[in-house]
Design goal:
Blueprint lengths: L3 E12 L2 E12 L3 E5 L6 H8 L4 E9 L2 E2 L5 H4 L4 E4 L11 H8 L7 H14 L1 H5 L10 H15 L3 E5 L7 H16 L4 E4 L3 H7 L2 E6 L2 E7 L8 H8 L1
Parallel strand pairs: 3-8, 3-9, 6-7, 7-8
Antiparallel strand pairs: 1-2, 1-4, 4-5, 9-10
């Protein structure tokens, strides 16, 4: 039996006095890519933020590997358990590409060999990032910045990789490049939980999908069981 790298049981979480997600139970197996789909406002980003310890957890459990991170502060979750590529990338635009990457690898700062190994893996996946390593992040295109954001996550070397709407605002060619990079990470055995509005991208990248609506999970299925364009899924759940 495959061991889950992420196991969420009966999670409810939210902001202030109000829950945004309700009784969520889901998992990501080791080396598996899973997509979380749903309409705007369904609570997808809140699931990712709950895993990272960025919003208030109320009930249930979140286990990454063999560690319950439910009540762990965000900086400890980011200490190897999980790392997030947030919507909008949120790079330090006035800093160089290489400096942005090194910030992602801060937990390895005392191990220069590890930092160089991780940097090499980023450059192997994204040769353009190596080519532009000395440029300020502000000088890069949106697609190139997304490569840097994914590379920054890779530098953390987390057990679980989280991505929030990575295709948002990118040109079609950049979206294709981003999706191919995620497929390569999955093929390398990385565990990925992806929030994505583009159903075609989610199906191309992921082994399984969950569908979220009004803060509750309403469906789970293997991508192999879904037609190529995902039209039935779009019609049923996403309008």
């Amino acid at each position: 039996m495959t061991t889950p790298v992420l196991q969420i049981n009966d999670l409810s979480a939210g902001y202030g006095r109000f829950n945004v997600v309700h009784d969520i139970t889901m998992h990501v197996n080791n080396g598996e890519a899973v997509a979380l789909l749903g309409p705007n406002g369904a609570g997808k980003t809140s699931v990712l933020r709950s895993i990272m310890g960025l919003i208030k957890h109320r009930t249930g459990s979140i286990v990454v590997g063999d560690t319950d991170v439910s009540r762990m502060p965000a900086h400890r979750v980011a200490g190897g358990h999980a790392a997030l590529v947030p919507e909008g990338r949120r790079l330090f635009l006035n800093q160089s590409v290489e400096d942005n990457l090194r910030l992602g690898g801060m937990r390895h700062r005392r191990d220069s060999a590890k930092v160089q190994e991780l940097m090499g893996s980023v450059f192997e996946l994204f040769p353009v990032v190596e080519r532009y390593r000395a440029r300020p992040a502000s000088a890069l295109s949106g697609g190139e910045q997304q490569m840097v954001a994914i590379g920054r996550m890779m530098m953390n070397d987390p057990a679980l990789m989280l991505l929030d709407e990575p295709s948002l605002g990118l040109a079609p060619l950049a979206i294709t490049d981003m999706a191919q990079a995620l497929v390569k990470l999955r093929e390398q055995g990385r565990s990925i939980l992806l929030v994505e509005q583009r159903v075609d991208i989610a199906l191309a990248v992921s082994d399984r999908i969950y569908v979220l609506s009004d803060g509750r999970l309403i469906d789970e299925r293997a991508t192999a069981d879904i037609g190529e364009d995902g039209r039935a899924l779009i019609d049923a759940y996403l309008g």
